[in-house]
């Protein structure tokens, strides 16, 4: 991981650390590694989204473990220095700065930890479409609904999940949402 961290410019590394700390503080639902990876690649750095996601997971583990153990900045930096593969100097500087500025605010509670194992709903988009024809059928005129859910997994990585439904499936989906809304109103 240290080799991949060396590739990331300091400003992007700082942004990644900032997003991770905000996620751990429950200020944002997750880290958009796809968008950040695209910006890093546009700047000329050859890194893939899988490597960036691994780095984000490592940093998230680092910050949450340091918060759980109530480490001071010097204890955290000393612990980082004792690792097998040394982190690049710019990464250690960013981690030191972020931990000094915002690390102590990371909320560590049992309830938050238990909730985080499920993931978090971020956004939902939908569109109505009609399949007009295909190479095997000249006249379909088949309506469908495409739904895209944006979800932050437990580590904070934001992913999109898309699926299509027929109109009867969508009506059932809608009915279930109405049932959930009515139950929530009674709480």
TrEMBL record:
A Pfam family it matches: COMM_domain
GO molecular function, one term: NF-kappaB binding
InterPro entries referenced in this protein's UniProt entry, alphabetically: COMM, COMMD4/6/7/8
All copies of domain COMM, residue ranges: 120-187
Function: Scaffold protein in the commander complex that is essential for endosomal recycling of transmembrane cargos; the commander complex is composed of the CCC subcomplex and the retriever subcomplex. May modulate activity of cullin-RING E3 ubiquitin ligase (CRL) complexes. Down-regulates activation of NF-kappa-B. Inhibits TNF-induced NFKB1 activation.
Entry's family note: Belongs to the COMM domain-containing protein 6 family.
The name this protein goes by in its record: COMM domain-containing protein 6
Lineage: Eukaryota, Metazoa, Chordata, Craniata, Vertebrata
